[in-house]
Amino acid sequence: MDSRSRTIIPIIWRTDQEIAMYTDPDEAAYCITRIARYRALAAASIDSGARASHAGIADAYSDRLTSLTRTPVRITPDV
């Protein structure tokens, strides 16, 4: 099955029971991985220029992830 023909897969976005729906789940997963990597690199960098560069790249991936996000759906548990 082609990855483009898959249905939208919910990925947990926040701990307050909101779920983000991504228009391209594969690209969203890639962005999430890159954000984590570049934030870790920024935190580990001793050079301020490298730290700023890594943080900027993480921010760019975060912006891309935001553009892939449909309006979050609020999940209310049955009581």
Give the topology, please:
Layout: E1 10-12, E2 18-21, H1 25-44, H2 48-67, E3 73-74
Antiparallel strand pairs: 1-2, 2-3
Give a structural overview.
The chain is mainly α. It has one domain. Helices cover 51% and strands 11% of the residues. The chain is built from two helices and three strands. The chain has a three-stranded antiparallel beta sheet, with no helix packed on it. Helix 1 packs antiparallel against helix 2. The model has no long low-confidence stretch (mean pLDDT 77).
Summarize the structure.
By secondary structure, this protein is mainly α. 51% of the residues lie in helices and 11% in strands.
Count of the separate structural domains: 1
What general form does the structure show?
elongated
The main sheet comes to: 3 strands, antiparallel
| Class inferred from helices and paired strands | mainly alpha
Strand elements, count: 3
Instruction: Indicate the mean pLDDT.
Output: 77
Report the span from N to C terminus.
Answer: 39 Å
The helicity comes to 40-55%
* Number of distinct helices: 2
Strand and helix order: EEHHE
Detail the poorly predicted runs: none
Radius of gyration: 15 Å
Percent in strands = 5-15%
Order the strands across the largest sheet as they lie in space.
Answer: 1-2-3
